[in-house]
Amino acid sequence: MDYLDIGFVTRSAIMQVVIFSIVPFLWWRLKYKKESTFFKWIGLYKPVKSTSTKSVVIVIVGYFLMWVISRFISNEVSSNFTSMGIAAVIPSLIVCFIQNGLCEEILFRGFIGKRLISKFGDSNGILMQAILFGTMHIALALALDMSINMSLLIGYFIFPTMAGWILGYIDEKVYNGSIIPSILLHGIVNFIRDLFFIFV
Predict the structure, then answer these.
(1) Residue 20 falls within a domain, yes or no?
(2) Is 12 a domain residue?
């Protein structure tokens, strides 16, 4: 795969948005169409902050620090753009904000998280979607035949689970259910992480 081919990366990102949105869209269409629009139901609406700015800053700084710490604790996490230089910046932006940020937030914080929250309450639902988010990451690592060790568990399960919890908390407790803040935060942090690898 040519990760420096912007056309390829863009087509791949659009395809992934479609794939990650199919099940949520069909679920909404079959069960919730009369109650809400799809975008509102999934959490794609203008965020309205419901807590103090100080709380928002603390949560966001905590999220960034968690990823910085994970970079030094786990040497398992890598990037498709390692050592590719300046030519990888635009493709990385597309991957980080669309393939990672938008797609994963639609599926985990929008579809799965909101269904779990409606069934089990805020605290339990946020925690459950976070564990599923971590499980998806470790499953992908195992599918790539990565050997299980503590570094892998930290980099592909513990930190993604913590990230999933923080992103769910930001959406539900700070921004009244909008997934737009978590899409942006997810994309920004992944892009900053990629920059470390791009210019290695």
Answers:
(1) yes
(2) yes
Coil, strand or helix at 159 = helix
Could you tell me if residue 17 is inside a domain?
Answer: yes
Both tokens of 4, joined, read 């420096």
Q: Which stretches of 112-179 are DSSP H helices?
A: 113-120, 122-143, 150-153, 159-169
Residue 122 backbone class (left: φ over 0; alpha: ψ -120 to 50; beta: rest): alpha
The reply to whether the predicted model has a pTM over 0.85 is yes
The token duo for 164 is: 């999933």
Range of the structural domain that residue 190 is part of: 6-198
- Nearest CA to 44 out of 134, 151, 176 is that of 176
Tens-digit pLDDT profile for residues 18-56: 999 999 999 999 999 999 999 999 999 999 988 778 877
Total structural domains within the chain: 1
